[in-house]
Amino acid sequence: MSCIKRNKKPNVTNANSLNSETIDNRVRYMRPNDIKPYTDLPPQAIRELLKQNMCDFGFVINPTGKRYNYYIFPKKFFSWLGKEVPEEWKPATE
Questions:
Q1: 43 close to 32: Cβ distance less than 8 angstroms
Q2: Which end of the chain is more exposed for a tag (fewer CB within 10 A), N or C?
Q3: What are 65-83's pLDDT values in tens digits?
């Protein structure tokens, strides 16, 4: 009887087998510390706003009950500020 590993990752031999369009079109998220250069609000204020669902430019995930993960959508965040999205936060295809 042979033992089969079920969690083994597939061996990718061809670098072109990955769809590069899918990789480039991923949504980029900002973190609360990423907003420092763009606003006077401290990152902790943004964290609390997201935790209390008081703003719609991001969301919070608390999977373990101990640590929070914060995700901010750059397009929504900069429209909330009334500014244009800087080049470093625009998707690669725009």
A1: yes
A2: N
A3: 889 999 999 999 999 999 9
- pLDDT score, position 21: 41
Q: Say how far apart CA 17 and CA 13 lie, in whole Å.
A: 8
Reduce the DSSP state of residue 79 to 3 states and report it. Answer: helix
pLDDT in tens, 40-68: 989 999 999 999 999 899 999 988 888 99
| Cβ atoms of residues 78 and 34 within 8 Å | no
Q: Which residues of 19-54 are buried (b: 16+ CB within 10 A; e: fewer)?
A: eeeeeeeeeebbebebbeebeeeeeeebbebbeeee
